[in-house]
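re: that chain from earlier
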Amino acid sequence: MATILVNQDLCTRCGICSFVCPMSIVDPADENTLPKVQDSKAAMCIRCGHCEVSCPSQALLLNDRPDEKVPLPAGAGTIFPDSMAFYLKKRRSVRRFTKDPVPKEKILEILDIARYAASGGNGQPEEWIVVHDPKNVQKIAGLTIEWMKTLVNSAHPMSGYIPVLLGAWESGNDVICRGAPHLLVAHIPEGNPVASVDAIIALTHFDIAAPAFGIGTCWAGFVAMAATSYEPLQKELGLPAGRKCAYAMMFGHPQYKVYGIPRRKPLQVTWR
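^ sequence. v structure.
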């Protein structure tokens, strides 16, 4: 099966597809031939699509589910720098949520954006568990508290904070999932040395895209830490065999709006 499909009527033989291929496997066109990936190099293709999307004449199509190709309208996705700056700077970690559930269809829309996140070798190793039922989110929070109790008087870096967190929990303050109605868990294959970074990049895409849909997020660090070692929590999450939790994120509709941008540390840059 051909790795790339080229329309000879549209191809201008500009060579861009060959130049942009990160694996350098696209042979450039000449007067008599079209761009091509030799059969001996086909296995090296990582399906990134650089060749396809960089073709000015749209003559080239990566032969990976070609029937699913979506045309890119002119100007689509263009964002002015000022708008981008304000959008990202006003992003907040939300710790107060309404009880209104986020429709599953909207969650899938955001996750569909997150699947386009960068990953090593375009491996896309992350998969998702969405804890949609608020009761199950609270159960996970409770199991995280159980894990914390095992750290009391231990050498764990968290041990000094545990009494305060347990006291807050016992007084009715959800310091684990902050009353969020939903929880997102990214899980990855065990033994993959770069998958954890890939998952964080994908979660960051979810984190950044969510506010555009009216959704607030907060990184669920306590849950993520507990899920690395606490078996009852791992079972509750339903992690597939051979996979582990990379990180977790709570989300839902924010209870309060954002009306400003807070200060941050001055930018520190070293030029070399």
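DSSP finds nine helices and eight strands in the chain.
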